[in-house]
């Protein structure tokens, strides 16, 4: 029993030490996951390829640790990096995985962010689907009463983007301004550059070039301060269009050259194609038809490639939805296995604890039985001692009774002898007295003679009585 208890204590100690050690190192590793994810988010707009590498490192480490929140954040970062690199299918797969994990963790804020990210992927492909995801994000935000103004600003910003693409400029302008008011209050630099750019585009489209340039210059300043290369390329593109319309060809060319350099730096094919289009319009407006023709040839050549690419991208999104459902099922199965393993581990710990309690109770019961047996043994020994004493007393009493019986028998014999002696020895003088009395009554004996004889008989009786008394009280006399 003692060996079993010792083994169990050692096992529990080992488990506890392992759990403490795992908890300590787990905290260090989860901090590393968080750090990798933050660094990746900081680089998603300046260097999406590097952000993707950080996302993969964070994801692998989070999976190894079983850190689900870190896994979801890394998947979201991976989706953002893929979307900035133009890989829509890979992006939506990563977002779908992240959404499943966030739902499993009941992380509503994470779900809203994923809906926003997926809506961005559908902006140029399916407006209705894009708005559907935005509606899901907004409804979830208000139904759960979230208090994150950055998220709310992002939702308004995405609404403005899709309405702009639908050419609903009034709705787009209203949503941009809602987003701008929140972002300006929060001083969110990354979103501020984006919303200023979009406001500039709307002002340009609606015929307010001066206000458009004001917004765009502010956006360009913010983007350059934080090295948002893709945003710088987009801003210069819009500025070049405005300068071209105003026949300010030098500024237009300068904006095109700067923006194209940033577009080539981030290797964004769609933006580069738009730059070719704007370069064609600039040269056409300058009446430099030879350059314009070369730009037009490049546009048509690359546009045909991009057309097939866009169709492929649309098809990829639909295929990604199918794969998303399948992968979601696999993810749910994996989560169920993880949950089962956790429950199994907890059940094992509980069972071990119950087993220890039972063993402790058994040990306590054995100790109590041992103590009880010892007490009973002591009582039996005491009872045996008392019995021996009683036997001795009984034996002593029997001897006393035997002695008393013998003494009584002896005394009874003496009394019997005394009675017999008395009946013989005393009866004779008494009979003589009675005879003298009868003789005296009849006058046969004189009174004086009768008295003397009577005195003699009385003396004889007295002697006999004294002799009997001596015989009864003197043990040395054995017979009468």
Task: Characterize the structure shown.
This protein has helices at residues 2-43, 48-65, 68-84, 88-104, 108-121, 127-143, 149-165, 169-186, 189-205, 209-225, 229-245, 249-266, 269-285, 289-442, 447-473. It is mostly helical.
Briefly characterize the structure.
By secondary structure, this protein is mainly α. The chain has helices spanning 2-43, 48-65, 68-84, 88-104, 108-121, 127-143, 149-165, 169-186, 189-205, 209-225, 229-245, 249-266, 269-285, 289-442, 447-473.
Rounded to the nearest angstrom, the radius of gyration is: 62 Å
SSE order: HHHHHHHHHHHHHHH
Helix content: over 70%
The parts where pLDDT drops under 50 for at least 5 residues are 14-25, 311-315
Mean pLDDT: 81
Strand content: under 5%
Largest sheet: none
Give the helix/strand class. mainly alpha
Topology of this protein?
Layout: H1 2-43, H2 48-65, H3 68-84, H4 88-104, H5 108-121, H6 127-143, H7 149-165, H8 169-186, H9 189-205, H10 209-225, H11 229-245, H12 249-266, H13 269-285, H14 289-442, H15 447-473
List keywords for this structure.
0% strand, 15 helices, mainly alpha, 480 residues, rod-shaped
